[in-house]
Each structure stands twice: as structure tokens, then as C-alpha cells.
Write a structure and sequence with these properties.
Among the domains are: 20-87, no CATH class; 92-208, Tetrahydropterin Synthase, Chain A, CATH 3.30.479.30; 299-347, no CATH class. The chain is elongated. The longest helix is centred in the C-terminal third of the chain and has 70 residues, at 213-282. With 347 residues, the protein is an alpha+beta fold. Residues 1-5 and 332-347 have low confidence and may be disordered. The chain is built from 9 helices and 11 strands.
Length: 347
């Protein structure tokens, strides 16, 4: 076979000969290469990644077959198997009665307005945090689990507010109302099998309508002032009552000690009197003289004594010869009286 060299047309490409290209496309080898490449790409499409805090769900012909933890996993390509990845660690939020728009909040009156147990209108805003506890129920048991959660939260909130008065919900019963809303909401979610777990339900605002809001706020402040004054009075009582009890106990102890002291002194005085009585009965005259001298000694212990001669009269004997500014008189030598007189005994 003689190969004829044909001249190349101006502007033609020597590597893209139409005849050669058509023969290459009709080659069975190329078809097999393309089929194998497509098969490899189809098999590689079954590789999927499950991140930290996520859960992988694998379906085989639409039926749940397995769940996978975080890491690199493989499943059969579609349409044989398919997978879903659900973040079960992320804390999700829901807003009831308002919507956050940047740094501002827009009140949704159709959700926020509700009646209390005493037939008063109140505007309530509820903030909810929740997790996905069961990804299978979250994906396949309800059509939209988050919408179900918002509807259930509104039901729980209206039920709780409708069972309490406006004053109770706004003041001391606020925390109790939050717990009640959380309990009712979780029961509804479990009943609907949404696979959601409520971690927090917090009342952001419980306000009356704008027309009477200032008056209700004054009532709330009055309640808060009353509670504050009660706490302060209780704290003052805790300080004063123990001190008063301590002082009372101290006074009782001092009184008992004084009583014991007086009893002991009285017993001693009685014993001394009985001893003196026994001695007096033995020698009345001597004992009477002794008692008289002891009494005079006690009475005149700190007195200034002037010894005068008996029988003299006039002014001079009565003038003190000592310094008038001194309280202690100098010793004066006694003068012997001319007549001896005996002291009159005490009857």
C-alpha cells in the first residue's frame, strides 16, 4: 500500500485530521475507556465526610440502614444508597413573639399578644434554645421539625400565660412560668416525635399593652421595693436578734452570779452572827464592850480626832492647832483627866 502525502491546506491542523478523528471516535477501545472512567467517578461519589459533632444517616433504596459518626465514610453510590449529615452539637435558636433584625427587634403581635388567667392582655417574647437529639426523627418523622417546634412553643406559652395572672407572670412567677413553658414544650415535641431537645426557654419580655405599660411597670417596681425592704428588715433582724439574745443571756448569767454571791455572803454573815451569839452568851459584858469598840473603830476610822481635857470650857480648846488645809491632824499627846470616868455600857 502506497501512502500518498497530500498537501496540507492553508490554515489546517496536521494533528486533527478529520479522517483520523472519526476513526478514533469509532474505536471500541475509547468507548471502554470512557465507560471505565464513568464507573470510577460513579463509585467515588459514595465517599462522604461527617464532621465533628455531626451524625451521618445512610439510606439504602430509601430505607434507613446505618448511622455513622464523625470521620471519612463510604456508601454505595446513588441511586443504591444516599446519605444525610445532621449537626447534632450545634445549639439552635427559635424566637416567639419577635424577630431579630441585626441589632434591632421587631415585635410580632400576632404571636406575642395573648390573654392571662385574669383576662388581661399581655405581650410576651420567648427565646428558645434546642438541640437535635435524634437525627432520624428530625429528618424523616415530621416534614419540618423547626416549624413544629415554633408552633408547639406558641401553644405552650399561651397555655402557661392563660393559667396565671398578669402580676404573677410579670413578677415573682416569671421563673416558674419559664420552667412550665419548657416542660410543656418538651412534652409536645416528644409526642410529635420531632427528635428535638429543648435546653432553655427564657421569657425576654412580659409587658402589658403600650397604653397601660407605665402603670404596670410602677406596680412591678412597687413589688420589687417591697421585696427589697422585706429582705433588708430580715437581714437587720438577723443581726439584732442574736445580739439581744446574747445580751439577755449575759444578764441572766450576771444575775445568777450576783445571787450566788449574795447567798454566800448571807450564809457567811449568818454563821458569823451565830458565832458571836455563842460568845455573847458566854460573856455578855465583855462581848458588848468589844462590839462597841469595834463599831466605834469602824465609824471613826477616817475621822480627825481631837483629844480635849474634860471639864474645860471656852473657845480656845475647840480651835485646831493644825494647818486648816491638811486633812490629817498631827498626833496630840493625850492629857490625863482629873477624874476617871467609866464609859457607859451599851444596853
Amino acid at each position: 500500500m502506497i501512502r500518498q502525502n497530500k498537501p496540507i491546506e492553508p490554515g489546517g491542523n496536521p494533528f486533527l485530521n478529520p479522517d483520523q478523528l472519526s476513526r478514533l471516535l469509532r474505536s471500541p477501545r475509547l468507548i471502554w475507556i470512557l465507560v471505565i472512567a464513568v464507573m470510577i467517578l460513579w463509585l467515588l461519589s459514595g465517599i462522604y465526610m461527617v464532621g465533628p459533632g455531626e451524625r451521618g444517616i445512610v439510606l439504602t433504596f430509601g430505607k434507613l440502614t446505618s448511622q455513622s459518626e464523625s470521620g471519612l465514610h463510604y456508601r454505595l453510590p446513588a441511586p443504591i444508597q444516599s446519605n444525610y449529615v445532621v449537626d447534632v452539637a450545634r445549639v439552635r435558636t427559635a424566637e416567639i413573639g419577635y424577630r431579630s433584625e441585626g441589632n434591632d427587634q421587631r415585635v410580632m403581635l400576632e404571636e406575642a399578644q395573648m390573654l392571662t388567667g385574669d383576662e388581661n392582655m399581655v405581650v410576651v417574647q420567648l427565646f428558645i434554645q434546642y438541640l437535635v437529639s435524634d437525627p432520624v426523627l428530625f429528618l424523616f418523622h415530621v416534614r419540618d421539625a423547626e416549624t413544629v417546634l415554633k408552633s408547639s412553643a406558641e401553644i405552650a406559652l399561651r397555655s402557661t400565660v392563660g393559667q396565671n395572672t398578669i402580676d404573677f407572670t410579670m413578677t415573682e412567677g416569671r421563673v416558674q412560668a419559664q420552667d412550665q413553658v419548657k416542660t410543656i414544650l418538651q412534652k409536645l415535641l416528644d409526642q410529635y416525635q420531632t427528635g428535638l431537645l429543648v435546653t432553655e426557654a427564657r421569657l425576654l419580655a412580659v409587658d402589658p399593652p403600650a397604653e397601660v405599660r407605665d402603670a404596670f411597670h410602677d406596680v412591678v417596681r412597687a413589688f420589687e421595693d417591697r421585696e427589697r425592704l422585706v429582705k433588708e428588715s430580715e437581714g437587720y433582724a438577723e443581726q439584732v436578734v442574736p445580739a439581744a439574745r446574747g445580751e439577755a443571756a449575759q444578764m441572766v448569767l450576771e444575775a445568777e452570779a450576783y445571787r450566788e454571791q449574795r447567798l454566800i455572803r448571807a450564809e457567811g454573815d449568818a454563821a458569823r452572827f451565830l458565832a458571836l451569839l455563842a460568845e455573847y452568851l458566854k460573856a455578855p459584858e465583855v462581848m458588848r464592850e468589844r462590839l462597841y469598840l469595834e463599831s466605834i473603830e469602824r465609824v471613826l476610822k477616817d475621822a480627825t480626832l481631837f483629844v480635849l481635857e474634860s471639864g474645860q470650857s471656852g473657845v480656845l480648846p475647840f480651835l485646831p492647832l493644825t494647818d486648816m488645809n491638811t486633812t490629817v491632824a498631827p498626833e496630840i499627846q493625850p492629857v490625863q483627866p482629873t477624874e476617871q470616868t467609866e464609859p457607859t455600857p451599851v444596853p
